[in-house]
Design brief:
14 strands; alpha/beta; nine-stranded mixed β-sheet
């Protein structure tokens, strides 16, 4: 860097250079050795009477604006991610995050004093961790090392996001033939819902993960307090997902004004005639129109299909129809519970052949996505890279997600009866660390010696729906030799 010796800010530049030298020689702790949220020990802060000095170190000479008089704090630190030395002007949100950690402030109190939501504080801290200003302990949502087998990928063992699939209502504007639960349950009351969101946020902060709420039902949009619950989730810094049915442009606009959902998922069950037989006349066309509306509004959207013997042959044609209409199209096998018990699944060999055809079709159709963990059997056999499995960790039941019903019952997975506790009687943390949840995380004993264990273990809902025991029996559709 060439700076004239007559520059009025040469003293401050020298201070920043010295700070960069100190940052470069600082020793950073190993990620696994960090016990609590802490300031990066390499961080240096230089107070200057000039604005724009950080740009003299981070930008190419042609793009450097000339420094101007004005107070500015310059942060210098060694990134724990790539060991590069960063030099940036401190923003108020950076200083807020640092102040909270240094002073060991309770985040809710700090949020009240700053007149912001606690979600703003959590997001500030999360952003500071992402940039390396703060160092966070590793996620406490972590599988045991025994899950490595020969799949040596840390991503398959440690989650950075925990999802509450929250069925806030049983109300629904459809009457799908395969619906697995039409039982009568009272809607979640607003006050109880706010307390649940507080619990979820506290659980995620203490486990060093990002929290996400997947609003579901029934149709969650029919809950009388849906918008209040959605706003409360956003105010707590939680990512939001909607698993629902087509709605009005007006309601979509209200949702986006609060917080853009991570995605809005709708369902189709095949081409028009097959879908409308399952979900009702006119549903297919309404859903296609709704996908167009969401795309125009910039709302990430996905389509899910429940796979049966009757719609197996329509999956790929539907995927072709959805090309350029949605961001992702995937499927789950039908679990034979509730109304689904009256339908049928394809045979194992037929399904294995379908998985191979689906993978081949993916090469040409970017909308097709992977969800069923059994795809890894085909990928392994073809010596191709494995994918992360159904929930990103093989089966994520009671691991990186749980399902919460409107009456407070908590299940490992909503696709089959898998009770692990009650939110009205226990805390989310107690439920998560309880014996029942731990058993679902362990998976089937039949899978414990399989090299695909970390990214598969089949689907316990399918095992249970076909009369097996998810704790001992392997997925009946497993075709790995």
């Amino acid at each position: 860097m060439t700076i004239t010796e007559k520059a009025p800010y040469r003293k401050e530049l020298a201070q920043i250079r010295e700070a960069r030298k100190l940052a470069s020689t600082a020793a950073l702790p190993s990620h696994n050795d960090i016990q609590h949220l802490t300031v990066n020990p390499s961080l240096q802060i230089v107070a200057t009477p000039w604005r724009g000095l950080a740009d003299q170190f981070e930008r190419k000479s042609a793009a450097r604006p000339r420094p101007e008089p004005g107070e500015e704090m310059v942060m210098v630190w060694q990134s724990p991610h790539d060991r590069r030395i960063h030099t940036e002007a401190a923003l108020p949100v950076d200083l807020l995050a640092l102040k909270i950690v240094v002073e060991e402030r309770e985040r809710r109190i700090a949020a009240d004093e700053a007149k912001v939501t606690v979600g703003v504080v959590d997001n500030a801290i999360r952003h500071a961790v992402k940039r390396g200003l703060l160092l966070s302990p590793p996620s406490r949502i972590h599988r045991p090392r025994s899950f490595h087998c020969t799949v040596d990928d840390e991503r398959s063992l440690s989650a950075t996001v925990f999802t509450l699939q929250w069925h806030i209502t049983q109300q629904c504007d459809l009457n799908c033939l395969h619906c697995y639960d039409r039982s009568a349950r009272q809607d979640v009351e607003l006050g109880a819902g706010l307390r649940i969101l507080d619990q979820l946020r506290d659980f995620c902060v203490s486990h060093h993960v990002r929290g996400q709420v997947s609003f579901s039902g029934g149709n969650p949009l029919l809950h009388p307090d849906f918008m209040s619950l959605y706003l409360a989730a956003a105010d707590r810094g939680l990512a939001t997902v909607i698993l629902g049915n087509p709605t009005s442009t007006r309601q979509l606009a209200k949702i986006v004004a609060i917080q853009m959902p991570a995605y809005f998922q709708v369902s189709l069950e095949g081409l028009e005639q097959q879908n409308d037989t399952i979900r009702g006349t006119g549903h297919f066309r309404r859903t296609l129109e709704f996908l167009e509306i969401m795309t125009e509004l910039g709302i990430p959207n996905e389509v899910m299909l429940t796979l049966t013997r009757d719609n197996l042959s329509q999956v790929l044609p539907l995927g072709e129809l959805l090309r350029n209409r949605t961001g992702s199209f995937t499927f789950n096998r039908l679990a034979l519970f509730g109304g689904g018990a009256n339908l049928a699944l394809p045979g194992r060999e037929e399904y294995a052949a379908f998985l191979r055809d689906y993978l081949a079709a993916m090469r040409d159709n970017p909308v097709l996505a992977l969800k069923d963990s059994l795809f890894n059997i085909v990928l392994e056999k073809e010596n191709r890279q494995l994918f992360d499995g159904c929930a990103g960790f093989g089966c994520g039941a009671a691991f990186n997600f749980v399902a919460l019903l409107a009456d407070g019952a908590v299940h490992a997975c909503r696709k089959f009866p898998s009770p692990i506790g009650s939110i009205s009687q226990q805390s989310l943390a107690d439920i998560y660390h309880g014996e029942s949840a731990s058993a679902y995380r362990e998976g089937s004993a039949s899978c414990r010696d399989c090299r695909l264990r970390a990214v598969c273990r089949g689907c316990p809902a399918i095992t249970a729906s076909l009369g097996g025991d998810p704790a001992h029996d392997r997925d009946p559709f497993c075709f790995r030799e």
